[in-house]
Amino acid sequence: MTANSLMQEITYTTYIKSPLGLLRISGTEQGISEIRFEEEEAIPALPESSIPTCLQACAQQLEEYFAGERQDFDLVLAPAGTAFQKQVWQELQGIPHGKTTSYLAVSRAVSGEKAIRAVGAANGRNPICIAVPCHRVIGSDGSLTGYAGGLWRKEWLLRHEGALRTATQIPLF
């Protein structure tokens, strides 16, 4: 064994039930690396005492979000991705609760209109749903396009946040 292999961090996973199904939360002592929808209901849970504080905080903040008590997340995030993907995900965090923006607007903010496909791909690979609000990105024509968790979940999240009552789009450029 090398010193590097001994220093690898342990990844922990916990689950919460939400109105949209089971959510898997993964991360290390250092931060959240993943929030994903799970289709299976029979997932074993770890005792709460063995889950790092950052994962417990994430679970609590997600529960508050679904209860309508939280609009913004205060979490240490540690998603794995390319530099470009991380740049897109950082941009997504600037979309306010209850608002939407377009893939084109995100593309213009990040690296120009020609990167719209790359922005769409990065958005689709976002490993931290809800807290990194990729669901707030819609088509330029206002259509709900693409969502890894399913369009029905995207619509539910946008309605929950009040973004579908009015077609409120914000430019990010």
Write the layout of secondary structure elements.
Blueprint lengths: L2 H4 L5 E7 L2 E8 L2 E8 L14 H14 L16 H10 L8 E2 H8 L5 H9 L12 E2 L12 H10 L13
Parallel strand pairs: 4-5
Antiparallel strand pairs: 1-2, 2-3
Describe this structure as you would to a colleague:
It is built from six helices and five strands. The chain has 173 residues and is α+β, with helices and mostly antiparallel strands. Strands 1-2-3 form a three-stranded antiparallel beta sheet, covered by helices on one side. Strands 4-5 form a two-stranded parallel sheet. Helix 3 packs across helix 4 and helix 4 crosses helix 5. The protein is globular. It starts with a helix and ends in a 13-residue tail after the last helix.
DSSP, total strands: 5
Can you summarize the main beta sheet?
3 strands, antiparallel
Quaternary state reads: single chain
Q: State the share of residues found in helices, binned by percent.
A: 25-40%
Number of contiguous helices:
6
